[in-house]
Amino acid sequence: MEENWEELEKSIKGCKKCKLCLQRTNIVFGCGNKNADIMLIGEGPGADEDREAVPFVGKAGQLMNKAFEGLGIDREKVYIANIVKCRPPQNRVPEADEAEACLNYLRNQVILVKPKIIVLLGSTALKNILGKEYGITSSRGKWIEQKGILYLPTWHPAALLRDENKKIEFWKDLKSVITKYKELNANKN
Ligand code: URA
Fold first, then answer.
1. Is the pLDDT of residue 188 over 90?
2. Which atom of ligand 1 is nearest to the CA of 83?
3. Does any ligand 1 atom lie closer than 6 A to the CB of residue 30?
């Protein structure tokens, strides 16, 4: 584990821990507030993210941004990262060895950010963070506490592009995140 961001960012440069390094343009490390109370974890970069080296800048990200704007969430105030930092070919789901190779970077990011709340965007994030026994359909919208962190699984924003009903649930889940965040901060004083 690296003790600070500088060391962590240095350690990932030129990473060749898995085969996703072969076709990537950029490593998509993460973005946002490195001291955020709220962190969001997605699956892996798509073509736009691979080009720009920033998570969630493509279609799915734009939809997520719209929800953020509607609910008054400032994207710059949360921290956003992915299970894998390099784009899987044809945007396929990361394979187990790829996720495994990359997860220590994410664990290190979580340790440095110290979020109180982690929003798990979709099945890949849920299964890799909380365990294979969790399913997104049954877990979404339900808070799960583990080791002092509150997790909320929800739909991956790309799923919203295909199903209008999921938009409503995603919106509801983000509202629940805001409520929880406010509760946590009210209890602090
Ligand atoms: N999908 C993800 O899971 N992450 C991104 O950064 C972009 C799309």
1. no
2. 3
3. no
- Cα 52 from chain centre: 17
Q: Ligand 1 centre from 45 Cα, in Å?
A: 5
Cα–Cα distance, 147 to 124 (Å, whole number): 20
Question: Mapping DSSP to helix (H, G, I), strand (E, B) and coil, where does residue 153 land?
Answer: strand
How far apart (Å, rounded) are the C-alpha atoms in residues 136 and 173?
A: 13
**Is any ligand 1 atom within 6 A of the Cβ of residue 49?**
yes
Ligand 1 in reach of 45 Cβ (< 6 A): yes
pLDDT at 169 over 70: yes
Q: What are residue 121's phi and psi, to 5 degrees?
A: -90, 90
Q: Could you give the domains of the chain? A: 5-188 (3.40.470.10)
At 187, the pLDDT band (50, 70, 90 cuts) reads confident
